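Tip: read the tokens left to right.
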């Protein structure tokens, strides 16, 4: 654990505000914190109880686990990071299409009724889209320290959203939430296309050099 922490501190020399802001926004959109507001409200209306601090802590643990062991895990299965990033960019693309057009592609078919873990932590916050975003950014050269700070700030956003969800609905209104979700959907769409082209060129580069 000490060596891990030291490596994060040493990596902070690669930390820049533009890369941090980009990483934060990509994660914020992938986690879909704005889109989770109506879901959290629906859970409350159904009498489900969730604890913001517990959800935030478990989400942070899952994000960090995937940040540090995601790449070795892919290597174990014989998958290189660029190939995963291309596949991941397609997942992000589909998520963006869901947000923009209001359709559902990813089905939530988990029978569990636990609102803390399912559906809030997984698959809503720490799900396929956020895991994909983390590994895709990592494969694109984003520093671990940048991702670490971006993840922790997003975890704080998750906590604050769950704590103030009823207030947010009154403040933004259903129309405001709808507009924000569409806007972030377009942003995620553009990001997914960029990741796809970036990593596809890395995969195809050996063929061009022949």
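Filled-in amino acids:
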């Amino acid at each position: 654990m000490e060596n891990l922490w030291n490596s994060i501190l040493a990596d902070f020399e690669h930390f820049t505000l533009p890369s941090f802001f980009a990483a934060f926004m990509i994660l914020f959109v992938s986690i879909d914190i704005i889109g989770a507001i109506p879901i959290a409200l629906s859970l409350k209306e159904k009498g489900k109880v969730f604890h913001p601090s517990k959800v935030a802590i478990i989400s942070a643990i899952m994000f960090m686990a995937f940040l540090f062991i995601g790449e070795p895990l892919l290597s174990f299965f014989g998958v290189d990071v660029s190939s995963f990033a291309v596949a991941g960019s397609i997942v992000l693309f589909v998520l963006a299409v869901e947000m923009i057009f209001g359709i559902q592609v990813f089905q939530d078919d988990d029978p569990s009724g636990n609102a803390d873990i399912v559906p809030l932590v997984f698959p809503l916050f720490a799900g396929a889209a956020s895991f994909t975003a983390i590994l895709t950014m990592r494969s694109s050269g984003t520093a671990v320290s940048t991702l670490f700070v971006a993840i922790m700030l997003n975890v704080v956003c998750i906590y604050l959203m769950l704590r103030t969800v009823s207030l947010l609905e009154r403040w933004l209104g259903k129309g405001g939430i709808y507009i924000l979700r569409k806007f972030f959907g377009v942003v995620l769409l553009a990001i997914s296309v960029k990741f796809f082209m970036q990593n596809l060129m890395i995969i195809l580069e050996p063929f061009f050099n022949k």
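The mean pLDDT is 81. The two ends are 44 Å apart (CA to CA).
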